[in-house]
Amino acid sequence: MDTIFDANVRAVIPLVTAALVRRYGGLADCEDAVQEALLEASVSWPKTGVPRDPRAWLLTVARRRYIDAVRSDAARQAREERDAALAPPGSAPTMHDDSLALLVLCCHPALQPTSRVALTLRAVCGLTTAQIAAAFYGTEATMAQRITRAKRAIDEAGRSFGELTAGMLAERAESVRTALYLMFNEGYAPSGGELPVHGELIGESIRLTRMLHAALPADSETTALLALMLLTDARTEARTDPSGLPIALPDQDRSRWDPAKLGEGRALAAQALTEGPATPLSIQAAVGAVHAAATDADATDWDQILGLYDVLVTLQPGPAAALGRAVAVGMAHGPLAGLAELALLDGDERLARGHRLLSVRAGLLERAGAFDEAEKTYAEAGMKASNAAERRWLEAQSDRLKGPAQHPTARIGRVLVVPALADPEGEEEK
């Protein structure tokens, strides 16, 4: 699928899935029908063009695929005939956005937390099983089994897809926030593919988070999540060069940062810290606010950021927070100190599967003047990167350091900084 096709599809996937679930129940069968419709669209739309109303097109095809499937089951004939008439695709929306309603359904209490998030990313966001597995540092086969079990568990527990209530939202808010957090990060730092950023996923995650924040205005955790998203997204326009390569944080043109998002994000970050206890989300938002306050890379208050990471690793021990803290140590106290912190993470199997640990180490090695070792480490990180844009960036850094004549004066902070992602059972660096 090309980028335009993805953008059109992602916006309507949850609406189509929700429409089927609302009428038919059976999340597993409805989601399968939507996937069949998407497959048909991937063949048809490149030839005929994206229809004027992608939602109506997909809803019509998904309905047909659903009915085709249930016709083979005689016991479900009566229900098929009773429910065959769907509401017109262009009918007025329900009181609550179907995307949020479907998201809450996917965070059903019958599911384990990780399964709730995985199913949300599949049904609401339209991510592939491979993308979800990468976000969770797991294998594709294991994740496919988890998603299948999750859909079956919701169907067995009985659907709960109707009028949203404040109580239902509050009960499932933590799982919903985690799903939105992962959705945003998959957009901001894609686990695979060619693009350095997926703007449609970023926009959808912020839209849904705003909706959740409006529904739960006193929830400081949702306030913190929205702050973190806005402070991070404010840098999006400055994160890539004309060729599509990522630009490391210290090299970004800060005049291209979005001042409106920075202002709103900083205000929300302060609100989250004053109205609720310190939490992993509010601390991460505070880190983003410190970066936002710096007029240039040299003005960044790394001592304050390190202090925030000291709190974060206490609240949420794990490789994601530890990796972020190692970067902060390297910036506040020098690259050798940062490398010593990284050495403590060498035995972590989850970090070993990806390229983040190697990428951070390469940047610190370069700053320490170990150019040959940095060049090799950049290359090794590039071989592990699943996203093509990040792989090209890492390869470019390796090429830049090849040969004695290419060794530059190490500049501060040549580390491709990305926001942390949730662990499979907690938090994890992407």
UniProtKB/TrEMBL annotation:
UniProt keyword annotations, A-Z: Sigma factor, Transcription, Transcription regulation
Keyword Transcription set for record: yes
A GO molecular-function annotation: DNA binding
InterPro entries documented for this protein: DUF6596, RNA_pol_sigma70_r2, RNA_pol_sigma70_r4_t2, RNA_pol_sigma_r2, RNA_pol_sigma_r3/r4-like, WH-like_DNA-bd_sf
Domain DUF6596: 172-272
Keyword Nucleotide-binding: no
Residues annotated as domain RNA polymerase sigma factor 70 region 4 type: 103-153
Biological processes per GO annotation: DNA-templated transcription initiation
Domain (RNA polymerase sigma-70 region) ranges: 9-74
Family the UniProt entry places it in: Belongs to the sigma-70 factor family. ECF subfamily.
PANTHER family for the chain: BLL6612 PROTEIN, BLL6612 PROTEIN-RELATED
Protein name per its UniProtKB record: RNA polymerase sigma factor
Species annotation: Gryllotalpicola protaetiae
